[in-house]
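Subject: Sanity check before I submit

Could someone independently write out the structure tokens for this chain? I want to compare against mine line by line before I put it in a report. The sequence has 630 residues.
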Amino acid sequence: MMNPNDTSDTETREPPADRFCDLVMKGGITSGVVYPRAIRRLSEHYRFRGIGGTSAGAIAAAITAAAEYQRRENNGSREGFKLLGSLPEELGSEVKKGKYKLLSLFQPQPATRRLFTVLIRTLNKSSTKSRWFSVFQGLLIAYWPATVLSMIVALAVAQSGAWLAAFLLLVIALLLSIGYWVYSDITGKVVANGFGLCNGMSREGELEALTPWLHSKIQKAAGRDAKDKPLTFGDLWDAKGFPPTWRSIPEGVRKHSIDLQVFSTNLAHGRPYVFPLAEPETGESRFRSHESLYFTEAEMKEYFPPEVVQWMVEKSPAKSKEDGKDMLELPEPEHFPVVLATRMSLAFPFLISAIPLYAVDRDLTDKRKFRRCWFSDGGISSNFPIHLFDGLVPVWPTFGIHLEPAIMKNRKKFYLPSRYDEGYEESWSLFAGKPEPAGILGGFISAIVNTMQNWNDNTVRLMPGFRDRVARVRLEDGEGGMNLNMEPHIIEDLAERGEEAANELIRRFASSNGNVAAGWDEHRFVRFNNLLKMMKARVPNLVEALGNDCKYATGMEDLLEKLSRATDDNGKPIPPPGYELPMTQQEKDAYKIIVAALNTLATVMNNQKYNIPFKPIPKPEPELRVRPPL
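---
Independent answer below. Compare away.
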């Protein structure tokens, strides 16, 4: 078997044209430097079909999709993956004396600069006390007029010999003056800046900021110039190289050759959105989606480069007026810029501004009313959506790269289970062991927020058929996260860690010399047994629910007859719920065949001769449930 650690000739090595994988990456602000070389390494053994991520993971996912697009459209070009592999070095390069590229991407607006300088002073502090001291010191310096004025007043009192009174006056004056100023900056200027210190755009004459940098990288990875047409989801869907000859796509279904999906969080609706949104229905229908979102050109100019905004305006399918403002509908998914979806996923609260869009309030019956929706970080609602591309039994692997704190020294800095019965240990938040009471309290609050944010992802990640394909990369204090000013050697170490994690995935899953990898065989066997166990638990209850023995429900066959014969007061047939037209005899017969097949399946599942001895771990066992596609 090929040695995954052999990096010779990596610039030209290519996987078979029909060997695919999916990849999902966790959010984590600067922790995203783990991903580029892991992706480049995986690209030597797989072609990417489904690519998903949240926040920083969405950045990596977008550039990966662009690089895969260039490979498919430009005769196997690896230029996009070369660009990905070079990102850690670029982010660690010095742009000004003592200032690195990574930090330079985060540029506050003039109105939020003071608070940003306070934040920067708190970075990389090892203890709670040192962080609070840095905040105090930063506030005194950032709000120096209040500091100077308070000292002048206190010194005037001290000249009379009342030193204690002068000291108390100084403390009170500082608290009141700086406190009021901070309050005004937060409630006024941060809120006006989209609830963030940085809106992602460059100031005139400054270095490239986050959003222009991201746009240029996506375009370059796709083989385009920043001024060219923005890369869209439609471009990705129509790329060459899919489906493989051994897979068919039903007629009328779009192939989605490269399937990029990123999470954002609509704070007005209180739920996640996955971009791109569903494609619009064609033709007349009684059942229209209510997912349409709108924007104003003026607001988008605050958050995106001019060429992206111009594209959005040109491709807007509808325009409305609201309070004198032109409300433009977002481009349809085919024309939706990849950079727009990525930036909407990357809006870490209070650091990077949320994106303002609008939706129609359909609870109002008297008139059409647009209401503002703030789209914030995707990680608020799902920070590691490993389930994004899952089928019941996979035809190719869906890999995940998970970021977690390293809670033990001298432990391996990345981990991938080597067998089914490994890797289901819980993650830990060890705040109770911190040496300082303030640290314990802060850890307790942080653990509450992390649990609300990550409970679903953390639970799913441990399930059988999930944990064996998730490479866990462990981060020390001072690595990733809010550490915006990481030094080059830390960035390089994290990038290498990601590449080592990718090597483990390749070693366990990638076929070589015509032989299917044992880890891939095991994974598919586990997923198949998961499916059987879930069906065995659910199908008998389903058949019971469809039968005629439910005391307070109409049996399904009787219900089909009832609905197929339903008429209005004029004797005209009425369509059943969810139907465009009345039910036909052919549709009714199809239902009956399906119910009969379920009865047969239930009989087999209930037969002890066909018992499935597979033991899912950990408990409780996975379940088949109806839930939104999120």
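---
OP: Matches mine. For the report I'm noting this point. The two ends are 37 Å apart (CA to CA).
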